Amino acid sequence: MLGLSVSRALCKCLSPLPAVRLQPLYTGAVLTAAEQQNKSSQAFDSSLLQFLVCPLSRKQLRYDESTNELINDDLGIAYPVVDGIPNMIPQDARMIRKDQKPTGSDQESE
Amino acid sequence: MAVPVRAVTRCWRPAALCQWLRSGTPGCQFSQSTHSSGRDTHFGFQTVPEEEKGEKVYRVFESVAQKYDIMNDSMSLGIHRLWKDWFINHMNPTPGTQLLDVAGGTGDIAFRFINYIRAQREKLIRNQTKSQQNLSWSDISRSYSHDQLGPLMGSQAVICDINKEMLKVGKDKLQRLGYSEGLSWVAGDAEELPFADDKFDVYTIAFGIRNVTHIDKALEEAYRVLKPGGRFLCLEFSQVNNPLLARLYDLYSFQVIPVLGEIIAGDWKSYQYLVESIRRFPPQEEFKEMIEDAGFFKVNYHNLTSGVVAVHSGFKL
């Protein structure tokens, strides 16, 4: 292929520049694209944790992989992640401890 | 179907429509026993207890979610696309911008945002190549490392909507179109956003804020999550300032839109609500003052299509 031979020639010309640097860059891009496809469709996108807080206490949340929930340990509330979309509506959240109630939620689950 | 066809033809006459509006269909009447906060709000032209509004709005959008896009196109004759394009051009986001799009369920704003960022990046690269015609090998290797930032150069759009059905439709749609990178979807309430303080560069809400029960609370939350220097942008139906167009617009809204809703989506009531909620939303100047009350500076607005919609903008300084 023309592209391949060009890049090979390019690598040869760039003897001070390690040829391996070009290679991982390319495969890396392919991998992330495939990963992204997979990740965004089902699993929770953990990069969201930098933005997300509990809407009631505005404290950071912990993602629990086993239950697929975002957990506020202080208040004992677990927010479900459905189809990769975290549901941060207190009325839909599950209470882990019985002694504390999230405000405004009468039902524990839908 | 929510309303029988006979009812549609009956309501076509303005007098009958008014009567129908006043009396409401049996399904629209609410029991008065559920007042608990004692405070009423409006749901379209009806007065309902505050606690009920959220639920009612939720049901409206749950029922229209699947047909939302096709209805938008047919009701606005495609003009909503131009409004949204104008909105993004007005925002003029730079690569790296962190966007929070509230009530952005079907992803219309986020999708345009991603496109805009991609175009900006291409322009940047084009300009760079124009200025550097004699590249050294080190320049070439640097251009490779530049790519590591990704095609969006760190930009991200978080789409937050209270309605899970709308989110589902939007996420599926954008995935089909090949947009997944840089997009995150969250179910959350505009009145108590699940985001930390000072996180976003731009907060947008397009055709969403009139459905929020407490608009002032939503504005305060917008202010909270924006970084200092961040911008609030709202696209919403507003008051038509041309009297002739206003007459035509009223006629079209009340006589045509619910009928279209019934024919295309089989749902008269939801579209009746949409039209009514537009009339209940405060006009341009009043909404501008509300934004200022929330703490925003340099608040201004632009009317599009003679004020059928308006874009309000404000900064957190």
Written overview of the protein:
The complex is a heterodimer of chains A (110) and B (317). By secondary structure, chain A is α+β, with helices and mostly antiparallel strands. Chain A has two domains: 2-41, no CATH class; 46-95, Single Sheet (N-terminal domain of TfIIb), CATH 2.20.25.10. Chain A is 32% helix and 15% strand. In chain A, strands 1, 2, 3, 4 and 5 form a five-stranded antiparallel β-sheet that branches. In chain A, strand 1 (62-64) and strand 2 form a beta hairpin. Chain B has 317 residues and is of the alpha/beta class. Chain B is 50% helix and 18% strand. In chain B, the strands form two sheets. Chain B has a seven-stranded mixed β-sheet, with helices on both faces. In chain B, strands 1-2 form a two-stranded antiparallel sheet. In chain B, helix 4 packs antiparallel against helix 10 (243-265). Chain B is globular, with a radius of gyration of 22 Å. The termini of chain B are far apart.
CATH topology of chain B: Rossmann fold
Overall average pLDDT of chain A? 69
* Alpha carbon gap, first and last residue of chain A: 57 Å
Number of helices of chain B: 12
Number of domains of chain A: 2
Whole-Å distance between the termini of chain B?
A: 50 Å
Q: What's the level 1 CATH class of chain B? A: Alpha Beta
- Classification by helices and strands of chain A: alpha+beta
Instruction: Report strand % of chain B.
Output: 15-25%
- The number of E-state strands of chain B comes to 9
CATH architecture of chain B: 3-Layer(aba) Sandwich
Can you summarize the main beta sheet of chain A?
5 strands, antiparallel
Q: What's the CATH C level of the largest domain in chain A? A: Mainly Beta
Sum up the overall morphology of chain B in one term: globular
Mean pLDDT reading of chain B = 84
Compressed to H and E, one letter per element, the order of chain B equals HHEEHHHEHHEHEEHEHHHEE
> Order of strands across the biggest sheet of chain B?
5-4-3-6-7-9-8
The tally of helices of chain A reads: 2
Query: How much strand content do the residues of chain A show?
Result: 15-25%
